[in-house]
Amino acid sequence: MKTLELYSALGLTDFEYEQIVKQLGREPNEVETYLFSAMWSEHCGYSHSRKYLSRFPKDGSLHSEENAGGVQVGSQVIFFKAESHNHPSAVEPFQGAATGIGGIIRDVLALGARPVALLNSLKFGRINEGEKSNHSKHLFDGVVKGISAYGNSIGVPTVAGEVGFDTCYETSPLVNVMAVGIVDKKDIKTSSAPVNKHVIIVGSHTGRDGIHGASFASKELSEKSKEDRPSVQVGDPFIKKILIEATLEILKLDEVLACQDCGAAGLLSSTSEMAYKGNCGMELYLDKVHLREEGMKAWEIMLSESQERMIFVTSAEGVRKVLDIADKYEIPAREIGKTIPEEEYRLFFNGEPAANVSPAMLNNGILYDLNEEEPEYISEYRNKKHDKTMSVEEAVRKIVSDPNFASKNWVYTQYDHTVGNRTAVTPNQAGAAGIWLGEEGGVIGLTIDSNGRQVFLDPYNGSKNTLYESYRNLVSSGYKPLGITDCLNYGNPEKAEVGYQLVKSIDGLADGCRELSIPVVSGNVSLYNECEYTRVYPTPAVGMAGYADRPEDVIKASFGSGEKIYLLGKEINNGSPAGASLYQMVCFDFLGGEVDSVNPELELLLANSIFELRDRKLIKGAVDVSEGGLLGALLEGLFNGGAGFRGALIGETEPLKALFGEITGRYIVSTDNAQEFEKHCKAPYKLLGECTGSEVVFDGYKFKLDELCNCYNNSIAKEIEN
What's 262's domain CATH number? Predict the structure, then answer.
């Protein structure tokens, strides 16, 4: 293939190729062209986002420059990272989701942390639209089964997550997965390779699966995307479980000086990044790599994304020790190269030079500027109004049974959320999951959240609201928030609307983290999530970790009989902005209006008040008010506690907005000592009513709790079976 045909076929633009020639001082050979096509792809190079990601606050995080970043609790470090596997899941949902789990596990493992928990944020097309929804059901079912099969098999519990459905995700599902690991600070290993050391690959044989996976994830989906199935990796969870144990044992060796996993762009990205971070060079002898297929070319070996592989850099004395441990676990391992003083990345194949480029050049790539001018659609949607109406009775039943609000038990009952014996809070017990830090000590709180509708209407405030929703999930469960990871899912950034959405989202998240004094420890960007006729909402998913010193500090999302129910925080009224509220979509298929903005001072006051009331044992249960509004939060607590309710929720506000409108800065809490609660509560509060009986009664409306609960618990299963 001619040079022009090759670099164009590999996705490099004329401008990018010109820069490669300019920096190299010559034209790249065939193998080098393949290397640049992968490392300068959006998926590896972050060419459209890296400039703006530098705006994130990092103070308080550990090793945020690594594949996963962390926060410290005592002598332990909690490493966590979210990542996307959107494109692979669109064409092969089971393997796409499964290998997403495999990849994110390796990110925390490479630092020496034992993986202890998984979370996910999933978005699909609507599954309640008859024949039209069959494709979305196929993707939904395949992704959930892929996560379940892989996570359950490797013995890491899936403890929390979220699932959403909207037409915009019909052909471009979002499959974001988050892994959490724990390691003693003194045992952390990084990926920075020292000079004059030995390079070893441990794990599965390298094959042709996953080649061009990074490039595939850096372009829009189309009808031809099914042809990219060979770009989807194939996972083996049973090998992964063995690899986890072998890696943790290898990383205890003093002779092991650096570690990196083989993820996107496989052997190429892992080894070139290690050399780049270590300010050294590397020589690799590709004929020493253990292969699964005959006749593989040099570039195929480098770009293969075969799963379950790790790279180690060791001293001379460590080579035999690493190989012996791998042999004990019956995992293939080979010494394949060495680090060198010259900052050159040299590849040899069958005794002949195959490539020689700079590690810095491979890893620095090209940075593009994005549009920061507000697009016209923002004001158009902000000014949209609807005059439709619906009875409260009909609206309650539609929302309770809508897959976006209804229980996700069909999903999480397929996951093993207790394997590993660390799970302290199981799904649906609280607003955030809980994992024991160790045999002694407190509980790590974990959550992941997104709201694409809000971000579409207002990228800055919608993204900040997403961050604060994760924050309130932790606070309502009794955890002090410590840090976040993010997964930024957007369309084609070369289009002005998408560029604006991405930049303003980053700004919203960055400003929100500074207001809360918490760092962004890690993250991922997934772009080009669109096809010819639809584009996903800009959907930043925010994963957050927190900590509760004692298990008794954890608050459940459950309201019991005889308890009084209070609203803490803002009250909604007819003038409150409530754009992108779920009820507007479910009841009227409407998206528009203004999105509410957070009040940081109020949010901090509410958090401190909840912690103080908890410490005084004056809170029995708590739920933050988010998707589904006031009544949605109340019903969640009632369903979990099995109690009815009698009180007043509407007041002078339009009924549907009062019940379901979504504004920031609100929690619903319960107490069994109202007098002391009111005496010590320092936040704005309002008594809503009392838990009693077996009905939900408010403002002249009456519903049987068990009927609503049945709709809530069974609606997704019914939709899947239809």
Answer: 3.90.650.10
